[in-house]
Amino acid sequence: MARTLPAEFQIYSDPTKGNITLSKADSNLYYLLTFNVPSDNRLTPEMCLAFTHALDVIESELLPIEKLPVVTTSKISKFYSNGLDLERAQSTPGFWDNSINPLFKRLLEYPTPLIAMVNGHAFAGGFMIAMCHDYRVMNPNKGFLCLNELEFGAPLPAPMSAIFREKVTPFVYQKIVIEATRFTADMAIKNDIIHAKGHLSDISGFITSNRLDKTAQSPSYGQLKSEMWRDIIKYCDTPHDDEQAKIASNIEKEAKRQEIRAKLYAKARL
Q: Where do the H-state alpha helices sit in 178-239?
């Protein structure tokens, strides 16, 4: 049964790992989730699970009382999120299947409008999280959006790649994935990555001008999103080990193709 929650409370709180705060904002126009996980809102296993839990709390406890859009932002002025804690991600059993991919899916299917208020840098996984929202508003004065896997030689698992492939044009997808472009707010809006430039104080105007307070009332909103992003969601539901096995198989096949090509080339030169 839905219950009335305090005006502001900690969804997740840890003395050393930070907190996520839930509140109603600006005359109850939207629900606000604020991240504060020092020093840069890394997507640790705990952070991913807490974020998902926060969305669950809003849907089960608050939306039955009042359906409103949900806005996410950071209390850390420099970073919206600096992406995965890669060492933790790789060393935590089940991280991909139990933490990050379910969070992507939860955002993509959420039954009311989600708005990422990108107040600072959103790198790698932080960029992905922002892209999983329905709308993005970005600080016009500071911060970059960047997928920098290219720079440190990391592969891009299928769900992560699909987020960008399905949400931007092929030209922009290339600039994001294999050029590691750092997008300012001006560049991001020009390339249709974000919907507006602004600050948290501008969010209410963005919501009302786009009628998102009305959109939030639709009972089919989440279902429409699930169908719209079903290809990304399909990858989120695919076990990570299956995807890794597919990647390894493709690498092996390519190595064999190169070996055959090298033999044919050597024969042709005789």
A: 185-190, 203-209, 212-215, 221-228, 230-237
